């Protein structure tokens, strides 16, 4: 029987992440969210946009996830680097075609050994709340969330 590479996250894991992230958003009564899950190769694995989510939330969420994968760092660390290394982050944005959004709400999804399996980007509320939902989704799928800050 042929086996196919998953490039990290499975579809089942991606869907579990989204379901738990959106549930957390409803629990916290956040504004409508858009959740994007990328596999380790940076390809969209799954996405959902809640009713009422504002314009460009899909692109922002994907940019948050893409930026974390591009540098292998959580969104909090990307935000710090955007402050201290503006030239580098501008170059990253240019090189990625604008697909790197260096703020909270982009979280790496890792296995127990720390191997990066993919990333989650959420947009819709303030970035810190978006991150809370991303972490909730990743942990609900049995994975470790890397936000860019030490545990």
UniProtKB/TrEMBL annotation:
Q: Which organism is it from?
A: Belnapia arida
List each coiled-coil range: none
What InterPro entries does UniProt report for this protein, alphabetically?
Answer: GlcG_carb_metab_protein, PduO/GlcC-like, PduO/GlcC-like_sf
One matching Pfam family, short form? HbpS-like
Lineage per the UniProt record? Bacteria, Pseudomonadati, Pseudomonadota, Alphaproteobacteria, Acetobacterales
- Residue intervals passing through the bilayer: none
What protein does this entry describe? Answer: Heme-binding protein
